[in-house]
Amino acid sequence: MIEQLPSKRYKFTAKDLFKAIEGSPNSIRHRVTKLSKDRVIRVICKVPSTNEKIYTSDTDPLVLFKL
Predict the structure, then answer these.
(1) pLDDT, tens digit, for every residue of 4-13?
(2) R_g of the chain, CA atoms, integer Å
(3) Number of Cβ atoms within 10 Å of the Cβ of 45
(4) What is the pTM assigned to this prediction?
(5) Which of 12, 27, 48, 67 could form a disulfide with 2 if both were Cys (CB 3.0 to 4.6 A apart)?
(6) Which residues of the chain have pLDDT under 70?
(7) In 10 A of CB 23, how many CB atoms?
């Protein structure tokens, strides 16, 4: 679930984006990688049991992915 933190940032995983946005998982994963390299979104931690990355962003990720 895409969560807005008290600091006005958004916290989400790639799986949250798969559920919220229509598109192929590969295209969403590619966009996440590109945005993290451009430092628009940042990895804040990894869930050890699933090896899933948790991202943070100053902008709503749904807005970023619809642009």
Answers:
(1) 999 999 999 9
(2) 11
(3) 11
(4) 0.85
(5) 12
(6) 67
(7) 11
Tokens read off for 48:
């050890």
Token pair in block for residue 35: 């945005």
- Angstrom distance (rounded) from CA 59 to CA 2: 12
Length of the chain equals 67
> In this structure, what DSSP letter does residue 66 have?
H
C-alpha angle 15-21-26 in degrees, rounded to nearest 5: 60
56, two tokens: 């943070």
